[in-house]
Amino acid sequence: xxxxxxxxxxxxxxxxxxxxxxxxxxxxxxxxxxxxxxxxxxxxxxxxxxxxxxxxxxxxxxxxxxxxxxxxxxxxxxxxxxxxxxxxxxxxxxxxxxxxxxxxxxxxxxxxxxxxxxxxxxxxxxxxxxxxxxxxxxxxxxxxxxxxxxxxxxxxxxxxxxxxxxxxxxxxxxxxxxxxxxxxxxxxxxxxxxxxxxxxxxxxxxxxxxxxxxxxxxxxxxxxxxxxxxxxxxxxxxxxxxxxxxxxxxxxx
Length: 253
Fold this sequence. Notes:
Order of helices and strands: HEEHEEEHEEEEHHHHH
Largest sheet: 6 strands, antiparallel
Low-confidence stretches: none
Radius of gyration: 17 Å
Number of strands: 9
Shape: globular
Mean pLDDT: 92
CATH topology: BirA Bifunctional Protein, domain 2
CATH architecture: 2-Layer Sandwich
Structural class: alpha+beta
Strand content: 15-25%
Distance between the termini: 18 Å
């Protein structure tokens, strides 16, 4: 999270180029939406599994980052592909996601109905809730995304589950009253790449598909993968120390 915000700071200030960042988490981590109550997290269960807890700068509900790929799109607010309304940005960026999934051999669709993000939703897990331009395959939600918009830039986060039990997130939440019912509902609504493709795709293949998908659908020319600039590194270290590793931030709601 600190790295994404550090890049956002520099992209918004014109010091860094618009960025597509792809990453996994080690160890696993439950991320809460910007305004989601920390009470939604079952911190005892997280500790038992050795998983971390963090609060995102983006909205939405809880996501368990394990056996998945996280993407972050970061652009200045005047970038044509994200300029305008929140819905316009979701729609444009969904084109890249749709193209990427087609490269992987899927036939995805995107629901164009606008959904007002509700941080206190009855269902605290991201993949239990509808989202803007929700990416589905065979009726199953496959990508969960959320945005943060500032005066100078836009950050969109998304999670793509690759393999593993999709309902593991429920064990990390404190508001699950009937676990078996919640598991059944989540399995009806969401899936991962393995369950849809019949096999778990190689992580590098998923990453390559996302790069190619965003490039072709949004007419982008990506530079070769790069490390953070020194200024981004310094800012990320500062944000990690003063914000994302802080109980004040994590428990802000």
